[in-house]
C-alpha cells in the first residue's frame, strides 16, 4: 500500500474540526476517487496528505498518514514533494505572466535535473501536444482546458509517485473534461503514477478509478470498488442524478444526503 491515511482528525484555528476520524488507502500504481459534496472535507484531506494545512492554521491532531512505510503527517510540504507526493490545487493555478514552457520548467527545480529534465519535458509534450504548440504563449491567455493540462504537466515534472488532483474537471466544458481524464488515465497506466482524485463529477472520476470513497461531514460513509460505488443507489441519485429506473433526475429533487447506516443498508 503506497498511502495509508489512518483515522485522522484535522482541526483549523484549534477549534474548527473538519475531518473526524477519516481513513483511506491508495495502492501503488492505482487511481482512487474521493467523492463528496461541497464542504465534505475533500480538499482538507488532500492538504493533510501534502502538508499544506499549516499555512491555513490547520493541523492533524489525531491519527497518522503513512507514505511508502514512512510517517509523513507533520512534515513540511517541501519535504513531502521531494519524497514523491505532488498536489494539483483546485482552480488551475498557473503563473499567468510566464509562458507555458516557463511554467513547466518550474516543475524541474524540485529534482534539479539537467538533460534528464529535458527528457521529462518532452514526455509532458507527448501527453499534451497542445502545450508544445503553445509553449511560447503567455499562460494567462491559455484556455481553461490548456491551463488544466499545464498544471498537470508541471506536476509530472516533479516525478511524483502519487498525484493528488483536486477537482480537475472544474469549470471545463464536458468534452475537454473528458479529454483531461483520458490523459490522466494514460499517465497512470504508462507512468505507473498513483493518483488520488477529488471530484464532484462522480461519473468521470469513477470511469477511470479502480476504487472509490464517498465523504460526508469529514467522514468516509461509503467505499468499495469503483464499479460497485457507481451502481450504489444513493450515489446514482445524489451524484449522477438518476432514479432507480436509470432515468435522469434533477439534482433539486434530492432533498437530503443519507447517513452512513443508510448508505450501507442499500
| Main pleated sheet | 6 strands, mixed
Percent helix, as a range, is 25-40%
Number of domains: 1
Secondary-structure element series: EEEHEEHEHHHHEHEHEEHHH
CATH top level is Alpha Beta
CATH superfamily: P-loop containing nucleotide triphosphate hydrolases
Instruction: Provide the residue-averaged pLDDT.
Output: 87
Beta-strand portion reads 25-35%
The CATH architecture category equals 3-Layer(aba) Sandwich
Number of helices: 11
User: Which fold does the CATH topology refer to?
Assistant: Rossmann fold
Radius of gyration: 19 Å
Structural class by secondary-structure content: alpha/beta
Neighbour order of strands in the largest sheet: 6-7-8-3-9-10
Low-confidence stretches: 248-266
Count of distinct strands: 10
Shape category: globular
Describe this structure in words.
- The chain is an alpha/beta fold and 266 residues long.
- The protein has one domain: P-loop containing nucleotide triphosphate hydrolases (Rossmann fold), CATH 3.40.50.300.
- It is 36% helix and 25% strand.
- It has helices spanning 42-50, 77-82, 100-106, 115-127, 129-133, 144-156, 174-191, 202-208, 226-231, 233-238, 260-265; strands at residues 3-12, 16-26, 31-36, 58-67, 70-71, 85-88, 162-166, 194-199, 211-216, 219-225.
- Strand 1 (3-12) and strand 2 form a beta hairpin.
- Helix 3 (100-106) runs parallel beside helix 6.
- Mean pLDDT is 87; it is low at 248-266.
